[in-house]
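anyone seen this seq b4? input:
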Amino acid sequence: MLGIKQEALAITLGEDWSQKRVSLMEQKETIENNLLEQVAAIFKIPVEAIENLDEEQAVNIIANTFHTNDNATVGIGGNSGNGDDDNRIFHPIDKLVQLHEEKITLYERMLKEKDDIIDRLEN
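predicted toks r here
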């Protein structure tokens, strides 16, 4: 949802991490508290946004707490209030549309993979 790639997260987590290990972590039902806190800190979001990951709710939590690297708050529909007009602005509606499009793409890919598997089984 934040556009952070697994490889970038792996690098930030440290030497022991790889893109594959991050991918495996994402698939787990539960994650150790200290790791969850570390990931939340990297994303600059509350742990609750990860624990209660419901796309719409997470977007709202992130929209209310997400900060840019220069510590300027990313607002909804306005600048951060620090006088810089070129700050990034987080628009939850745009993010929801993007998530919806990504979900459609994922479903299409899953359907194609299912059809490929069925074709292979029939052959």
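Residues 67-87 have pLDDT under 50 and may be disordered. The chain has six helices and no strands. kinda curious what u guys think
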